[in-house]
Design a protein that fits this description.
By secondary structure, the chain is of the alpha/beta class. It has helices at about 15-25, 65-75, 100-110, 130-155, 165-175, 175-185, 200-205, 230-235, 275-280; strands at about 1-5, 30-35, 50-55, 80-90, 110-120, 190, 210-215, 215-220, 240. The protein is built from nine helices and nine strands. It binds flavin mononucleotide. Flavin mononucleotide (FMN) binds near residues 13, 90, 121 and 226.
């Protein structure tokens, strides 16, 4: 089977998860292509594949705008099935409705929704998770990816989150304001000239081409989608993200720096502690009680 992944990923979490699923699928004899959802990225259309996965990080309880625009740009799927792969920083069910608009657009383009896979990965905004938490999250994802890949390889249906609660629906609607708000907030992004190396990594990683060099200085345009790729990937933490700066996370996570094997309850962050504990338990990750 030929399978395509169309991936939006600002800090690499969603790409990492898709890479692991792709490895599983390849190991089962499938041919897998992974394409970036980004400006000027070269892609082959879904029509050339037997199965399609669209992958994104949850942004404000919604799918990011470039993912919705990608779906809008598709030709008719002629009844082709597709899966959604999503990552989010917290395991709250408030994230469960994030794919609703994407699914609506895909249905309009005659694609059949076959289900979605949700993995919790470290925050690239709000606060930095510890290396231990990153290791636990990656262990949780790796524990379920073989069976998730099996579903995709078999073109089987997965549960469809149709029964999300009212809170998730409300959160998605309220936070959709981010879609109109970010282009405005993004105009206040700046680089700290005293720190900036002018390596132009921010220009290269911006998935919507919103960052350029003008008169030798990094300039932010009017189309920011707030994905955090620029701030997260800057090698010297020189990007200032306006009123969002206190929530900024900079620098790649090292998923192998800590072992998940000796984790105790105190390693699980206090924020949403119960929800993370439940998520790890349901994904086969053992966590010992806190030491006395
Ligand atoms: C603008 C923005 C909004 C976010 N909103 C949410 C959210 O509503 N819920 C959540 O659990 N995580 C949220 N996150 C965290 C990301 O979903 C999470 O870190 C994800 O794994 C990042 O994936 P990526 O590295 O592929 O971009 C948000 C991150 C950003 C940058």
């Amino acid at each position: 089977m030929k399978i395509a992944f169309y991936v939006f990923s600002a800090s690499g979490n969603t790409r990492k998860v898709c890479g692991r699923i792709a490895d599983e699928l390849i190991g089962r004899g499938n041919e897998v292509s992974v394409f970036s959802i980004a400006k000027n990225a070269k892609i082959q259309p879904p029509a050339e594949f037997d199965a399609v996965c669209i992958a994104y990080p949850v942004h404000g309880f919604n799918a990011p705008v470039p993912v919705l625009n990608f779906a809008k740009s598709l030709q008719s799927g002629r009844g082709k099935g597709y899966y959604i792969v999503k990552t989010s920083g917290e395991p709250l069910s408030l994230n469960d409705d994030s794919s609703r608009v994407l699914r609506r657009i895909m249905a309009r383009h005659d694609y059949i929704f076959k289900g979605e896979f949700h993995y919790v990965m470290p925050y690239n905004m709000i606060f930095r998770h510890s290396d231990k938490m990153a290791a636990l999250m990656w262990r949780a994802a790796c524990n379920v990816i073989p069976s998730d890949a099996g579903i995709i390889a078999a073109s089987a249906d997965k549960s469809k989150f149709e029964d999300v609660g009212g809170a998730a629906k409300a959160a998605r609607k309220v936070f959709a304001v981010e879609h109109v708000g970010m282009p405005l907030l993004g105009r206040f992004y700046r680089v700290d000239e005293a720190k900036c190396l002018h390596c132009e990594k921010c220009v290269r990683v911006c998935p919507v081409g919103n960052i350029s060099v003008k008169d030798g200085k990094i300039a932010f345009g009017k189309n920011c989608v707030g994905c955090s790729a620029c701030a997260f990937n800057c090698p010297v933490d020189a990007v200032r993200t306006g009123i969002l700066n206190k929530w900024k996370v900079n620098g790649a996570y090292d998923f192998g720096a800590e072992s998940p094997d000796d984790a105790t309850e105190t390693d699980v962050c206090a924020y949403c502690h119960k929800a993370y504990m439940e998520y790890f338990a349901s994904h086969g990750v053992k966590i010992a009680p806190a030491k006395e």
